Amino acid sequence: MYAEDIQKNVTLIKRNIDEACRVSGRSTxxxxxxxxxxxxxxxxxxxxxxxxxxxxxESKIQDATRxxxxxxxxxxxxxxxxxxxxxVKHAVQIFDYIHxxxxxxxxxxxxxxxxxxxxxIKIFVEVNVSGEETRYGFSHEDVAPAIEEMLLMNxxxxxxxxxxxxxxxxxxxxxPYFKQLRELKESINAKNSVDKELSELxxxxxxxxxxxxxxxxxxxxxxxxxxxxSSEI
Length: 233
What we know:
Elements: H1 2-24, E1 32-36, H2 42-50, E2 55-58, H3 61-68, E3 76-79, H4 88-94, E4 97-101, H5 104-116, E5 121-126, H6 140-150, E6 156-162, H7 175-191, E7 200-202, H8 209-214, E8 219-222, H9 224-227
Parallel strand pairs: 1-2, 1-8, 2-3, 3-4, 4-5, 5-6, 6-7
Helix pairs in contact: 4-5
């Protein structure tokens, strides 16, 4: 029954993604649905993979290490939780993407650790669009010069920006934050002195991913909506 719930949820989420792309004049090929699996077991991960989800998001390295060893399918592993520099050595061994790069120092350590194992890590630079003191991430003013430095580092590829909008029951309240991140990406690309363009926006979660897509998200991080008990659709 749980597998059936997941299958129904995936169908509904993909339908919502299709509609958000239609409304915004985008192709569904531009949007990656990441399954955030931090609260579920390996069987649930296998189930979403069987439903066509090939991007798996985890917040903690220890949990990801345990689950990673039981998943034989070819998927992309994304670290979406805060990363401390002393954990980078373990993170680069598991993850293909790191979404929470919030300092030049962290980017530099990722590059060095990735070089040691002959790997290139794709990173998202985290931006604190809301300005909340409890949030990680660069300010609007500091992110562009930081990215200029990161783009020159070996063994990391800066693919885009990531943010977390303030949680709200009304998804429309998150729209201005998603719009800000899209406009920031466009501004950075326009002024970038290094010939490497940011192409990705990681934004939107279970409660607001359709709005995020309408505002330009290329990766949506969906957990609760995937794994909650499903109603008929």
